[in-house]
Design goal:
The complex is a heterodimer. By secondary structure, chain A is of the alpha/beta class. In chain A, about 45% of the residues lie in helices and about 15% in strands. Chain A is built from 15 helices and 13 strands. The longest helix of chain A has 22 residues. A three-stranded antiparallel sheet of chain B has the order 1-2-3. In chain B, β2 and β3 form a beta hairpin. The chains are: A alpha/beta, B alpha+beta. Chains A and B meet through α10, α11, α13 and α15 of A and α1, β2, β3 and α2 of B.
């Protein structure tokens, strides 16, 4: 049986979400904007899904707008805020954002905006003081990733939100990896915008949402029909919305059980790797990290070849190496934390989910330990290290 | 991105992994950014390469190109070996994904660096062989 350890890439669709979706892929196909009886039933289902989403996040239903993905929500948050406030041309973000924010910022730079990319410490964290110091009279928006997709580090968003609120600057957070995995209460956490994606918490792909706090000025990204109260045009992905709401409801309701259980699995796996394989470094924060995230660098070997060895034995994970991405640089997140090229190229991410159990740890170690040894045996870097020690 | 069967075969069962003690030519090349480092060892008798081994830090394509390059070079004269290029390495592997083409260049460079090392040590001139470029290697 396959050993799936890539839940930060995507999660399997929760069976309850699938069951909730099926009627809307079959008989209940009607357009929720139509006026006749069956269409009104579909409209009602979409409204109920919105209420479920809002309840799970401590928000009001009218603050939840459905999008085609987390990336769309991220793009919209930045473009929408900037367009509604054309006088301000400065953006504050971090060096470790997901590409959905990072590349949007790069595109905005080409359009004349200036962007401050806050550096992170060795664990991948920024401090609230860094945000405060970066604020200029010209600052239009602050965008901080809630929990990083590669290293799982959670940012001190509570404190940052207090600063942006005091200064009256909209705060967006890319919470794609956080929603459904750590508690989020938007009645207490004062972010103005929050992006989420269904397939990261047991929902289907191709559906996400942007939380827009009441009173936030946000121009549309997509123009067209009057869907989503004129904020996001395009016929609703009804089945996707239903599936996302069902999955989020379950994920949030189960959080008190799943979070400690998966965190314990994570710590056991980290401990197992660090004690049994020499020359390994844990990347990310030791405690302020997502329950399922394990990111480790194996010195002297390259991540993609290790992934291929795991893949051949039915074990699926992910890497920060340059070679795997098709880019010429290793992960910008690991580089921002100060890792050497060698260590960044040797980084693997195992992300645990609701279906993983204790039994998966020895199964992984049985595959991982010999694969690391085999690649080190053919590594000129390991050779140099051994010979230096002699 | 997909690797050919030939690439996966050479990655899974790489030929000629290891080193040659007192090798006649050793060449190490690498690209710090991409994270590929290759070291080739050659044994040469009467202007013929009779043994080739390698050690490589790198992705699947880097391991496979190293493996096939050592296979291609054994039995070749020095003159023939110089003519092995990244293109011949690519062809022998039934192609590489576009983003991995640089790995085949690295295999060519590693082979040429090992030949250069031999030429320098033995005082032999190998026609058409260029000195290896100075590059920053990550060690």
């Amino acid at each position: 049986m396959a050993l799936y350890l890539d839940n930060a890439a995507t999660t399997p669709l929760h069976p309850v979400a699938l069951a909730a979706m099926l009627p809307f892929l079959e008989g209940k196909f009607h357009n929720p904007s139509s006026v006749y009886t069956p269409a009104r039933a579909v409209r009602q289902a979409v409204d109920e899904a919105r209420i479920k989403m809002a309840t799970a996040l401590g928000a009001s239903p009218e603050e939840i707008v459905f999008t085609g993905s987390g990336t769309e929500a991220d793009n919209w948050a930045l473009y929408g805020v900037l367009e509604s406030n054309p006088a301000k041309k400065h953006i504050i973000t971090t060096k470790i954002e997901h590409h959905g924010i990072l590349f949007t910022c790069r595109a905005l730079e080409k359009r004349g905006y200036t962007v401050t990319y806050l550096p992170v410490d060795e664990h991948g964290q920024i401090t609230p003081a860094q945000v405060e110091e970066a604020i200029k009279p010209d600052t239009a928006v602050v965008s901080i990733i809630m929990a990083n997709n590669e290293i799982g580090t959670i940012q001190p968003l509570d404190e940052i939100a207090k600063i942006t609120r005091r200064k009256g600057i909209p705060l967006h957070t890319d919470a794609v990896q956080a929603v459904g995995h750590i508690p989020i209460d938007l009645s207490a956490l004062h972010v103005d915008l929050l992006a989420l994606s269904a397939h990261k918490f047991g929902g289907p792909k191709g559906i996400g949402a942007l939380y827009i706090r009441k009173g936030t000025r946000l121009a549309p990204l997509l123009y067209g029909g009057a869907q989503e109260r004129n904020r996001r045009a395009g016929t609703e992905n009804v089945a996707g919305i239903i599936g996302m709401a069902a999955a989020l409801e379950i994920a949030v309701n189960e959080l008190t059980e799943s979070r400690p259980r998966i965190s314990e699995l994570r710590d056991a796996l980290i401990n197992e790797i660090l004690t049994n394989i020499p020359h390994v470094k844990l990347n990310g924060h030791p405690t302020h990290r997502l329950p399922g995230n394990v990111n480790v660098s194996f010195q002297f070997i390259e991540g993609e070849s290790l992934l291929l060895h795991l893949d051949m034995q039915g074990c699926y994970a992910s890497t920060g190496s340059a070679c795997s991405s098709g880019a010429l640089e290793p992960s910008h997140v690991l580089m921002a934390m100060g890792l050497s090229h060698g260590m960044a190229n040797g980084a693997l991410r195992f992300s645990l989910g609701r279906e993983n159990t204790q039994a998966d740890i020895p199964r992984l170690m049985e595959i991982l330990t010999p694969a690391v040894a085999r690649l080190r045996a053919m590594s000129p870097l390991y050779d140099d290290y051994i010979k230096k020690g002699e | 991105m997909e690797y050919s069967e030939k690439v996966m075969d050479h990655f899974t069962n790489p030929r000629n992994v290891g080193e040659i003690e007192n090798a006649d030519g050793i060449g190490t090349v690498g690209n710090e950014k991409c994270g590929d480092i290759m070291r080739f060892f050659l044994r040469i008798e009467n202007d013929v390469i009779i043994e080739a081994k390698f050690k490589t830090f790198g992705c699947g394509a880097a391991v496979a190109t190293s493996s096939i390059a050592t296979e291609l070079v054994v039995g070749k004269t020095l003159q023939e070996a110089v003519k092995i290029t990244n293109k011949s390495v690519m062809e022998a592997l039934d192609g590489l994904p576009a983003t991995k083409a640089h790995c085949s260049c690295l295999a060519e460079e590693a082979l040429h660096a090992a030949l250069w090392d031999y030429a320098k040590k033995s005082g032999v001139t190998i026609g058409g062989l260029q000195p290896p470029e100075e590059k920053n290697h990550e060690h």
